């Protein structure tokens, strides 16, 4: 446990340029405080205790604004930056070197039993206000955009954004998307009217065409 705590402190110093010393990190980072409390609560939870770990989690939430269920499994070098409003559910699993920002929810979508929260891979960054919901997997080296709502799995080495979130980058290359430029979108009504007008013109020209098949009145060529 103490080795993990040292790695958690090191992660803060490496990823936040505002962190000037180990003492400052220990005293002034609520994300670290919540994580340290969770490490101890999770230890008790794994050894069969339920109420005491929940009480510790509740106290941590009161003082830090970060709610982590003691049943959640969190790997090494985990960093919660500006963590107010972070929620991590009971069956959440988080890998190593993961960073999340304020307002992130790793939650469930209903009252299902068993695994009902996300599994987060290694080296993942989850942006401010993002929601990752359900027993889905976010692969290694993923980036989740701020404010995104992720409802389906994300492959490793991808970037997902939007509501609902979709993959926009995969293995460093941009993923083609649908063109939503309103000026370029087709008008099915106008196209149908155009075809109807062409049929009317053809009917008008029947019987008045010249020998070469071209109407003498309007110049329209019958098919």
Lateral strand order in the biggest sheet? 3-6-9-12-14-15-16
DSSP helical segment count:
5
* Stretches with pLDDT under 50, minimum 5 residues: none
Describe the global form: elongated
Report the CATH superfamily of the largest domain: Hexapeptide repeat proteins
What is the structural class?
alpha/beta
Distance between termini? 84 Å
Order of helices and strands: HHHHEEEEEEEEEEEEEEEEH
Describe the structure.
It is a single chain. With 223 residues, this protein is of the alpha/beta class. The protein has two domains: 2-174, Hexapeptide repeat proteins (UDP N-Acetylglucosamine Acyltransferase, domain 1); 180-223. Helix content is 31%, strand content 19%. It has five helices and 16 strands. The protein has helices at 2-15, 22-28, 30-46, 51-64, 188-205; strands at residues 67-68, 73-74, 79-81, 87-88, 93-94, 99-101, 105-107, 119-120, 125-126, 131-133, 137-138, 143-144, 149-150, 158-162, 165-170, 173-174. A seven-stranded mixed β-sheet has the order 3-6-9-12-14-15-16. Helix 3 runs antiparallel to helix 4. The relative contact order is 0.07. The mean pLDDT is 86.
Question: Helices, strands, pairings?
Answer:
Blueprint lengths: L1 H14 L6 H7 L1 H17 L4 H14 L2 E2 L4 E2 L4 E3 L5 E2 L4 E2 L4 E3 L3 E3 L11 E2 L4 E2 L4 E3 L3 E2 L4 E2 L4 E2 L7 E5 L2 E6 L2 E2 L13 H18 L18
Helix pairs in contact: 3-4
């Amino acid at each position: 446990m103490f080795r993990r705590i040292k790695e958690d402190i090191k992660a803060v110093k490496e990823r936040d340029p505002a962190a000037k010393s180990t003492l400052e990190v220990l005293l002034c980072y609520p994300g670290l405080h919540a994580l340290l409390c969770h490490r101890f609560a999770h230890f008790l939870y794994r050894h069969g205790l339920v109420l005491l770990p929940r009480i510790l989690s509740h106290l941590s939430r009161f003082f830090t604004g970060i709610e982590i269920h003691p049943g959640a499994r969190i790997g090494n070098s985990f960093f919660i930056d500006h963590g107010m409003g972070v929620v991590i559910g009971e069956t959440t699993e988080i890998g190593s070197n993961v960073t999340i920002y304020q307002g992130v929810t790793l939650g469930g979508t209903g009252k299902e039993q068993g695994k009902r929260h996300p599994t987060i891979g290694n080296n993942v960054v989850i942006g401010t206000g993002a929601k990752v919901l359900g027993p889905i997997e976010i692969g290694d080296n993923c980036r989740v955009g701020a404010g995104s709502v992720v409802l389906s799995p994300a492959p490793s080495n991808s970037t997902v954004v939007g509501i609902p979130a979709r993959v926009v980058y995969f293995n460093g290359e941009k993923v083609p998307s649908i063109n939503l430029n309103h000026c370029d979108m087709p008008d099915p009504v106008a196209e149908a009217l155009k075809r109807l007008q062409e049929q009317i013109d053809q009917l008008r020209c029947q019987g008045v065409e010249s020998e070469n098949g071209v109407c003498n009145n309007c110049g329209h060529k019958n098919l």
